[in-house]
Amino acid sequence: MKKFSSVTGLVLPLDRANVDTDFIIPKQFLKSIKRTGFGVNLFDEHRYKDKGKPDADNSQRPINEDFVLNQARYADARILLARENFGCGSSREHAPWALDDYGFRAILAPSFADIFFNNCFKNGLLPIVLNREIVESLFKDVEATPGFALCIDLETQGIKKPDGDIINFEIEPSRKHCLLNGLDDIGITMRDAERIRQFENNWRATSPFYFTLK
Amino acid sequence: MSSKTLYDKLWSNHLVLQRDDGTALLYIDRHLIHEVTSPQAFEGLRLAGRTPWRADANFATPDHNIPTTKSERSQGLEGIKDPVSKIQVATLDDNCREFGILEMDMNDIRQGIVHVVGPEQGATLPGMTIVCGDSHTSTHGALGALAHGIGTSEVEHVLATQCLIAQKAKNMLVRVSGQLKKGVTAKDIVLAIIGELGTAGGTGYTIEFGGDAIEGLSVEGRMTVCNMAIEAGARAGLVACDKKTLEYIKGRPFAPSGDLWDEAASAWMELKSDEGAVFDSVLELNAAEIEPQVTWGTSPEMVVSVNGRVPLISEEIEKSKQANYQQALAYMGLKSGMAISDIRLDCIFIGSCTNSRIEDLREAAAMVKGKHKAETVEVAMVVPGSGLVKQKAEEEGLDKVFIEAGLEWREPGCSMCLAMNADQLGAGKHCASTSNRNFEGRQGFGGRTHLVSPAMAAAAAIHGRFVDVSAL
Question: Is B327 an interface residue toward A (CB < 8 Å)?
Answer without folding.
Answer: yes
